[in-house]
Amino acid sequence: MGMGIRRHRAYWSGVWLLLVLCAWPLAAAATSAGFPLVLQPLEVADAAGVDVAALRAGRLDGGLKPAVAPVIQLRQGEVGWWRITSPVPVPAAERPQLLLRSPFVNRVQAWVPGRDGPVHAALYGEHAAPTHAHRALVIELPQGLPAGAAVWLRMEGRSALPMQLAIEPLAQVHRDDLAYVAWRTLVLSVLVLLAVLAFIFRIGTGESSFAWFGGMLCFAVLYLVAVGGDARLLPGAEYLFSTTRAHVLVGGFGVVCSNLFQRSYLDLPGKLPGIDRLLWLGTALSASCGIGALVASARWQILAGNLGLILSSILLLAGSTILALRGDRPGRVVMASWLPLMVFTTLVATGHMGLWDAPPWLAQGLAGSFALASLLLAIGLADKLLELRRDRDHASALAVADKLTGLLNRSGIEAGLRQALQASGGGGLCIAFVDLDDFKPVNDEYGHGVGDQCLRIVSQRVRNQLRAGDLIGRYGGDEFLVVLPATPLAEALAVAERMRVSVRGRPLTIDQLRLRASLSIGVAESMPGDTVESLVERADAALYVSKQGGRNRVSGAAREEAGLAGASA
Length: 569
Ligand SMILES: Nc1nc2c(ncn2[C@@H]2O[C@H](COP(=O)(O)OP(=O)(O)OP(=O)(O)O)[C@@H](O)[C@H]2O)c(=O)[nH]1
Fold this sequence. Notes:
Organism: Luteimonas padinae
Enzyme class: transferase
Structural class: alpha+beta
Keywords: Membrane, Transmembrane, Transmembrane helix
Strand order of the largest sheet: 11-12-10-15-16-17
Catalytic activity: 2 GTP = 3',3'-c-di-GMP + 2 diphosphate
Distance between the termini: 46 Å
Bound molecules: guanosine-5'-triphosphate
Protein name: diguanylate cyclase
Number of helices: 16
C-alpha cells in the first residue's frame, strides 16, 4: 500500500514537472511583443503577372483591400499579394525582422525598403535560412519600415495552413528562437525516449501493445518533424518531408498504430465491443489513406485521413470516458491524456478554419500536449503491466501455498528442494522430515478445528527456528519438509533438535485447551547424484527410526559410504 502511494506520487511529480516545462516556453512566446503592422491583401486580375515596378511605385494601390488580421492563408495553387505597412515608424536601429510563423512548405518573395530585388524565404530548399529556428520564415528589414514605406509580399499557396505575421527586433527573434529550439528538443526527446523504451519493453515482455505504442510515437515524431521543419537542413529532408503526401502517410499510419495500441490497452474488445467494432472503421480509413499515399498522392487520402482521425478520436474519448466513469484505471489514463490533446487540436483546427485568431504558441502547445499524453500513456502502460505481473505473481504464489498454514504446499516445497539440490551441486544440503506425533487422537478427541489450529501453531514454531534462506512446506496431513541449504549434517541435526524442543517445550494453547505435542524428525544430507525422491526417501527412513525409537526424537539418515548416524531425544 505504502509503495503504491509512493509510486503514484512519483508519477504525478513527473507529470507536473512536464506541465511546468510546457508553461515556460508558452509563457515566453506569449510575452513576445513586436511592432504593430497593417496587412492589406491586393486584388489584381492576374496575380501571376503583376508588374512589380508598378506595384512598388504605388500604381496598383487601387486594388488594395481593407486591412485584415495579420494572417496569410492560401489554398494550394493560389497566388496572393499583400502590402505590409506599420502605423508607427519601425527604426532600423532595432534591426527589425519580418516573421511569417509556421511556414511549413510555403515559399514567399518579399520586396523590402532598401532592396531592389525580391528576398526569397522558405523552410526547405535553396532559400532555407540556417541562421534562424524553423518556427518562422525571417526576412530582414535593413532600413526598418519608415512611415509611408511598405513591404510587398507574394506567396504561392502550397499548404493550406495559416501563417501569422509579425515584425520584431532581431534580439527578440533570437531569444524566441532559442526558447523554441529548447522546447522542440524537449518534446521530441520525450517522444523519442518513450518510443525507445516502448520497443525495449516489447522485446522484454512480449506485449504487443508496447510495439503499437512505440510505432505511434515514431509516427508522431516524424509528423512533428515533417510539419515543423525540424530536420529541414538534413540531406534529403526536402524530398522526404516537404510534401503533403509524406504527412498523409505518417499521419495515417500513426492513427492506425494509436488505435491498435489503445484498443488493446483499454481492452475494448472485452469491455466495449460496440465501440471496438466502430474503431475498426476509423482504423481502416486511416490505413487506406496511409497505404494510398505509399502508392500515389490523391485528394481523397486527406479526406479519408481526417475522417479516420476524427472518428477514432471521438470513439476513444467516448470509450475512455465510459470506462473511467466505471472506475476503470486504463480508461482514466486515456481520458486524462486525450482531453488536453483534443482541446488543443480543436483550438488549432478552429484557428486554421479562421473561426478565431489563434495565438502563435498554440501549435507548440499541441506538440507539448502530445508529449504529455504520450508520457501519461507510457505511465499507464507500465502501471498495467505491473498490475498484470502482481496478479500473475499472486496466482503463482497461491498455486504453491498451503491454505491452512501459509507455508509452501507439497509441490511448492518439492520444487524448492529441486532447485536447492541443483544449486548445491550435489552436496552440503540437508533436509528434515518432520511429523507430529499421535495427531490422530487430537482430531478424534477435540475435533478438526482444534486439529487445524494445532497444525498452524506447530508450523509457526518450526518455522521460527529457520534462517532466511531455509525453506519449509507442508508435505502432507501432519508432515512438514524443511530444506536447509549449505548445512552440514551435524548443524542440521542441531536445527532439528531446536524444532523438536520448540514444540515439546511448551504446550499448545488452543481456546481453553493446553495440549502437549511432540515431533518426530528424520534428517538426511544430500549426496552427489541425489534426486528429490531419493533424498526424501532417506529422510523418511530416518523419521521411521525416530518413530520406532519411541517418538519425540531426531534421527539422522545413515550415510552409506561414511556409516554416519545420529539420534537424540
Ligand atoms: N485437523 C486436521 N487433521 C488432518 C489434516 N490432514 C490430515 N489430518 C489428520 O492427521 C492425522 C495423521 O495421522 P497419522 O500421521 O497417520 O498418525 P498420527 O496419529 O499422527 O500418529 P503417528 O504419526 O504415527 O505418530 C489423520 O488423522 C488425518 O486425518 C488437516 O488438514 N487438518
